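Researcher: Good morning. I'm working through a list of sequences from a screen, and I'd like to move beyond sequence-only analysis. For each chain I'm collecting a predicted structure so we can compare shapes side by side. This is the next one on the list. No need for commentary yet; just the structure.
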Amino acid sequence: MKYLVVSDIHGDLAFINYLFELVEKEQPNKIIILGDTMSLSDNCLRINDFIDKYNDKIILIKGNMDFDGYLKKELLNFYQEIINGKVFIFTHGHLIDMNTFPCDVYVQGHTHINDIQDSKPIYFNPGSISKPRGNTVNSYGLITDEELIVKDVDGNIIKKLTYR
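Model: Good morning. Structure tokens for this chain:
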């Protein structure tokens, strides 16, 4: 399985459009958006086009700048999945921290700073695809059966960790 993990789009139309290309390039089995999808933007129609196209693959997490009712899919506070025997918790990071639930890998957005820490649990943040902070670049994450990967929007690997 391959998971595409993006966060903090904040309604940026250029990066909403880029998501269509990114899915075609990376060919993920599942797409997890870690919150702050729209913020106060009026680009709901385009992100809803994306949701319509990939609805069966998308998990939407609620961010601190997200509001119910404007997206065509339910916003979750967190999502849990077992990947290769490892418990993954996916959240935006403003409501649930890495000590809330026992897990092997804690995946969050919110900070806009991409990071992978080989800790207990492993910490994975894909950064912001549209508004990076802390001297980081626009980035997204991939989860495979063995690796956590952060890539820049040109597809270059920035960080990688084997978690198996």
